Amino acid sequence: MIRSLAYALLMLGAMFVHAAPIQDDGAPDPGDVKMIKAIFDHVLVQGESYQMLDHLCNKIGPRLSGSEGAARAVEWAQQVMHDAGFDRVTLQEVMVPHWERGGKEVATILGDGGEDPLTVLAIGGSVGTDPDGLTAEVVEVQSLDEVAELGEDRIGGKIVFYNRAFDQRNINTGASYGGAVDQRVGGPSQAAKYGAVGVVIRSVSSSFDDAPHTGTLRYKEGVPRIPAAALGVQSALRLTAALEKNPSLKLYLNMSCRWLPDVKSYNVVGELSGSDHPDEIILVGGHLDSWDVAQGAHDDGAGSVQSIGVLRTLQALNYKPKHTIRAVLFMNEENGTRGGQKYAKLAGENKEKHIIAIETDSGGFVPRGFSVTAPESTLAKMRSWLPYFDKNTISYISKGGGGADIRPLNAMYGVPTVGLRTDSQRYFDIHHSRRDVFSAVDRRELELGTGSLTALIYLIDRNGL
Amino acid sequence: MIRSLAYALLMLGAMFVHAAPIQDDGAPDPGDVKMIKAIFDHVLVQGESYQMLDHLCNKIGPRLSGSEGAARAVEWAQQVMHDAGFDRVTLQEVMVPHWERGGKEVATILGDGGEDPLTVLAIGGSVGTDPDGLTAEVVEVQSLDEVAELGEDRIGGKIVFYNRAFDQRNINTGASYGGAVDQRVGGPSQAAKYGAVGVVIRSVSSSFDDAPHTGTLRYKEGVPRIPAAALGVQSALRLTAALEKNPSLKLYLNMSCRWLPDVKSYNVVGELSGSDHPDEIILVGGHLDSWDVAQGAHDDGAGSVQSIGVLRTLQALNYKPKHTIRAVLFMNEENGTRGGQKYAKLAGENKEKHIIAIETDSGGFVPRGFSVTAPESTLAKMRSWLPYFDKNTISYISKGGGGADIRPLNAMYGVPTVGLRTDSQRYFDIHHSRRDVFSAVDRRELELGTGSLTALIYLIDRNGL
After folding, report:
1. Which of A62, A286, A358, B411 is 20 to 30 Å from A129 by CA-CA measure?
2. Which percentage of chain B shows pLDDT scores above 70?
């Protein structure tokens, strides 16, 4: 009675919500409806993702590749998977880059009106300044192209200040991030190519506060490596205002960040073996490493604990998967993606067959959809499952998605990839800044992500692709 | 070019996202597509809702009916509407109840192991205790029915402790609130009916912290009015554990809250006059009053500023509505709904024609859908508009919705009503507690609510219902 009532209610809701195509074989299967309700009930009441995240953030903390925190996180994740009784738990060795921030960075406007200290973080991977720091005039630009247009005459000997703002108009803030992040990633070498001695950028953030946001840069071969830092948005606005008054002001920059030799680290892999197709793998993963300035709660502690949480949920519901369900906690997504590359390389060597790979690295916010890189038939099949999801969780399947860690699996072997899409409004207020802490994560939002991933994996396991 | 590209992109997105029925008259109108993009661009870049909310929360603060804060909020809202140059700004006089919390409440377990002070708030509308407080044994129950089953023998002379938990399983947390709130609203009189001398409840909240959540109660005629208070969830758990050890422990309760004579207050009404149908009104509203324990940021400062924000957005885009668009900031939703009742009464007396009334009172979280009480044909028409909305804003039109302030318009005159549905995961962590403050509201989430409301109203104004 409860069963049929729940089914009737779900169908009623589904009719109102999704006019998505149901497959030719008819209405959603009542058994699947029941299982998916059990999945969401479980995560919302007894889910462990939030407690795991509490431990990862508050007991371990920052986990930049090569750091002690990253090493402790690997140990912890392996232990959690062992304690959970996963059928197989392995570590995949991977050599990772090791960059350290060093002491607190300094950026100060030296103007007519005295000194104005700005909030600043070295961009990840930057070289430091001389111990005495660096002082130079500042050229403000809006783009890498503008640096080329200004040329060596205007850029040489200067600090280039990339000040193009985050476009607030995109509802998907990831698009705005993508539209501004070239300043951070490619800006330093572009400036160096024209003789600049340093780079500062406006933080790539939707926020209007003054917390600087770090992230990685990519130095080009054959171009001098110059120091590069990110200013808080308010600091960037102060700098641009100061430059308007006094274009020949100088900026003082001091950063002691540095590169150390590569360090041995690991991807952490745990799985539940498939009963019918043990050699066919459904992968769900996030990345265990984080930036060094906070707890990496949303990025990507959330995805790490959700990936373990998927397997824990299937265990709790006593579900025996037909395919092997594998949780992978990748190392070094933030500044190298060595873990993802190594994983794909090993998958090839071991002739592993992945039927799909799913990444959760959009922050632990409420789920809104899945983005999918797969043949049209797979997309159609996944769309036919939309009625299984409550309208306040997954409401779309969009084309083209995955994640940095699973991209090599697609590129090398054509494995279909999926990204969990969460609500993105708050993400780039927090991302790569000191604000990415446990208290910025909502328990229910996080657990609904675990539930959505578990439900999708259940549907794939049951129905194939 | 940009226009057609934007249109093509929107259509592409829409096809993937919504298989919602497009009307017979064909694909979405390119002009409407352009206008709706302009609406969202405007609110995300230049929207004023967030700044208005900052003022309302941080300069005015709590606004319980009858309080000085409520009076100042009325003045402020009227001034804002005047300054905005709305075509008509009026105050609708309404007499509202005036209840005051008084000094800080005290609830203390008097057990064998000494005293344990609990976090507590008087339930809004409760009578106080004697100045010396109230001490009695405690009977823990799960429901109003259980009180009746236990009867006068077990209940008489005791404090009834309603401890039924918020059901974490509902993805729509509003359903869980609805499933537990009878303890707060009807619990006190039910207990008094069987001779209880006081009531405490577990706060109706999704949170596991110890912030108590207030809200209103409803005393029944002919039953003694007894003091009633809400405990923080952790405090409720401590009380239940203490009772398990010592069922005859006593609870000490001291509250100095009290009723004062009704106070003259106002609904604040501002409108843009319609060009073609000035006598046909599209209403958008929220409530200006709030509980007294915080800033009423989500409940319902958000809806108040969004309602003004809709008209401001139409003005900014130089849109001249065909129908009259009216923003109504209702008074006294929280403990009486006198403002909503008065509004409907006056609408009848003045023979006003409302073609639809929309309420925003679900917190300033990211929008997810609209719930609609209207004929099926209206629902179908509104569903046909889903492709106009980005998949990360409005993704459904569900049946049955509105709001407490506009319900009388529907009940008395059959006016169709709509509620903006926002993501509900965090709402009941915050609702009616000290946590409902400006810093708990995200700028983009709030402004997307304003944008969604403006877009819907634009579509109704342009296309009719």
Report:
1. A62
2. 94
pLDDT score for A26: 58
Contact B396 A397 (CB under 8 A): no
Q: How far is A59 from chain B (nearest CA, A)?
A: 20
* Sequence-distant (≥ 6) Cβ neighbours of residue B156 within 8 angstroms: B194, B195, B196
pLDDT digits (tens, 9 = 90+) for B353-381: 999 999 999 999 999 999 999 999 999 99
Which has more confidence, B149 or B114?
B149
In the chain, the amino acid numbered A390 is: D
Rounded Cα gap, residues A424 and A168, in angstroms: 12
The pLDDT score that the predictor gives to residue A112 is 79
Query: Please, which residues have CB within 8 angstroms of residue B39's CB and are 6 or more apart in sequence?
Result: B313, B317, B451, B454, B455, B458
Q: Please identify every stretch of chain A with a pLDDT value under 70, giving residue numbers as ranges.
A: 1-26
All structural domains of chain B: 2-98+261-463 (3.40.630.10), 102-256 (3.50.30.30)
Helix B68-83 vs helix B302-316: crossing angle, to nearest 10: 10
Count Cβ atoms below 10 Å from residue B31 Cβ, excluding itself.
Answer: 11
B26 confidence band (pLDDT: 50, 70, 90): low
Tokens 């200004």 correspond to A150
pLDDT (mean) for B376-397: 97
The answer to whether B44 faces chain A, any CB pair under 8 Å, is yes
For B214-239, how does the pLDDT look when each residue is reduced to its tens digit (9 = 90+)? 999 999 999 999 999 999 999 999 99
User: Which region holds residue B363: left if phi is over 0, alpha if psi is between -120 and 50, else beta?
Assistant: left
The reported pTM is 0.94
Please list every residue in chain A whose beta carbon sits closer than 8 Å to the beta carbon of residue B19: 18-21
At residue A305, what are phi and psi to the nearest 5 degrees?
-75, -30
Strands (E), A288-366: 323-330, 353-359
At position B279, the amino acid (one-letter code) is D
- In whole angstroms, give the CA distance from residue B43 to residue B47: 4
Q: Are strands B106-111 and B114-118 parallel, antiparallel or unpaired?
A: antiparallel
Q: Is the pLDDT of residue B25 over 90?
A: no
Rounded CA-CA distance A376/A264 in Å is 40
Element (H, E) at A440: none
Verify whether residue A333 is a known catalytic residue.
Answer: yes
Do the beta carbons of residue A288 and residue A39 sit within 8 Å? no
Distance between CA atoms of A345 and A337, rounded to whole angstroms?
A: 13
Mutate to test the interface with B, among A2, A425, A430 (most CBs of B within 10 A): A425
